[in-house]
Amino acid sequence: MKPFFAHGKLLISAEYMVLHGSQALALPLHKGQTLQRLRSEDRNVFSWDAYQADNRWFNAKFNPATLGILETSDRQKAENLQLLIRSIIEMDPSFQKELFTWNVETMLEFSPLWGFGSSSTLIALMAEWAEINPLDLHFRVSDGSGYDVACAVAERPILYKLREDGPHYRQVMFKPPFANNLYFVWLGKKQSTAEHLVEMAEKINPGYPEILHFSTLTQQMTEATELSEFRQLMEEHEAKLSELIKLDRVSETRFPDLPGSVKSLGAWGGDFVMIATESNSETLYNYLDKKGFKTIFRYNDLVYDAERNK
Fold first, then answer.
1. What is the CATH number of the domain that holds 191?
2. Tens of pLDDT along 31-72?
3. Quick one: CA torsion of 255, 256, 262, 266, rounded to 10 degrees?
4. What does pTM read for this prediction?
C-alpha cells in the first residue's frame, strides 16, 4: 500500500502578521513526512510508531475503542495525537473502525527540531487518510493560521491569507531568477512556532495600514526579478516587523557583519533564517561555519515546485 506524503514548509513573509489578515508567501519543501498503514494483528491495540532517520523518536499504543493511552514514549505527544484522532472521529465517526484495522508508521524526513512542520504534515496526512479537508481539521486542533497545512498539500509556493470567511490560498509561480543566491540556515534553537506566533500576535494590534503594508511586501517579494530588489524588500520587512513586535532584528543580534541580507522565518530567535547574498557559496559557508552554523540549505535543494521538478 502506497504511503501518504505531506510537504514541510517555510514561511517567507508576514510572520505574526498572517494571523491578523496579511497575505503571506509560503514554500512547500522537498522534505516532508510519510504515513504508512500496516495491517493490525491485534484488534485490541492501535499502535503508532514515528521514525526520523531510521530512529524511532516517538511511539504510542491506544485502545482503539476508547482511544485511551495504553503506553507511550512521550505523554504530551500521545495526548496531542489522541486529540487529533478524536477530532477526526467527530468529523467522520466511521473513521474509528480504521483504528481496529491498521497500525501506523510515520517517517519524518527532517529533524523535528527544525520547525519544518512535523505537526502540520501530520494533520495533512491524517486528513488524507480520513478523506476530510485538512484545513478544517487544522482549525479544530490548532490556533495557528493554517498556512503550514496548506503548504503540506501544495504543489508549488502559495500566497495565503485569512479572511472573515476563513482561509484563502492560491499557488503561485514563484521562481526567482536569483534562487542560487538564496540560502536557509538553522539557528540551532527549536521554537514552539505555533504557540509563539499566537502569543506574539496577541501582543500586537496592527491597524489596516500595517496589515496592507505586509501584504504589499509579500506581493512585491513574489514578483521581484532582481536580487537587489528582493534584498531591499527583506530588509524593509525586518525593520517594520521589528518595530511592531519590539524584538531586535536577527541581522543585528546574530549576523551584524553578514555579506548580504538576512531575514527571520517563522518565530523570531529560533528555527531558520533566509540569507540573500551576492557572495559565492564557499565564502558564505566559511562565514557561517566560523559562527557555528552547520545546517544550511540552498533554495533549489529545499523548496518544492512540481512544475520545476518535473
1. 3.30.70.890
2. 999 999 999 999 999 999 999 998 999 999 999 999 999 999
3. 60
4. 0.94
